[in-house]
Design the sequence.
């Protein structure tokens, strides 16, 4: 399901207030099969800058349009929609598959794993389309992997912008494990009266 911008964005969730850009851990974003190492970082930018022309963009290697993009967040997020602006002349990605909270996925993993959600993409050169998520499945997202299997017939896949809309929980990823550990009961803190020399009286 996609959303077109035929409304006032300030009154809808497509405004920059809903952008998750500032919650992306950009230094740890990676891509497999990118022609220029590190170029994937250039496609993550503020919503208002999504159409700004730049020589920097993500492109797959010649003759192999498949791309796999790993995006970690600095805090858990809830993702409502995803936007992708591709390249011209058949180089835009034609399909998107996503995986959540899985690290180290490679192309063989992506091909064999069931995606959380898949979309058939349109050539969104003007950045007017957003793809709605199955929101109940996109809660507590610590990282997302985007699999672009093919383009619209081009020898490469080009991506100029990737954006996420939603909400951040403000729970930083590096403290989640500590919290989980702390809420697990410690047996030594919960000794029974029998164990501590006490007893129970019968009624």
Sequence:
């Amino acid at each position: 399901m996609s959303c077109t911008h035929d409304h006032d964005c300030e009154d809808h969730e497509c405004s920059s207030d809903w952008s998750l850009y500032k919650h992306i851990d950009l230094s740890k974003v990676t891509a497999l099969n990118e022609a220029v190492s590190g170029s994937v970082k250039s496609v993550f930018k503020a919503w208002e800058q999504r159409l700004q022309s730049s020589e920097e963009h993500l492109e797959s290697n010649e003759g192999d349009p498949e791309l796999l993009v790993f995006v970690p967040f600095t805090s858990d997020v809830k993702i409502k929609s995803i936007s992708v602006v591709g390249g011209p002349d058949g180089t835009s990605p034609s399909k998107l598959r996503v995986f959540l909270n899985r690290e180290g996925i490679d192309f063989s993993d992506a091909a064999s794993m069931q995606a959380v959600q898949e979309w058939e993409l349109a050539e969104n050169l003007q950045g007017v389309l957003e793809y709605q998520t199955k929101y109940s499945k996109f809660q507590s997202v610590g990282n997302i992997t985007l699999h672009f299997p093919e383009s619209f017939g081009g020898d490469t896949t080009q991506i100029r912008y990737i954006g996420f809309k939603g909400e951040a929980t403000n729970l930083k990823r590096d403290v989640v494990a500590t919290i989980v550990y702390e809420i697990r009961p410690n047996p030594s803190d919960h000794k029974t009266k029998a164990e501590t020399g006490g007893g129970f009286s019968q009624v």
Q: What stands out?
A: The chain has one domain: 10-172. The beta strands are 2-4, 30-32, 58-59, 67-86, 95-100, 117-120, 129-132, 141-148, 158-172.
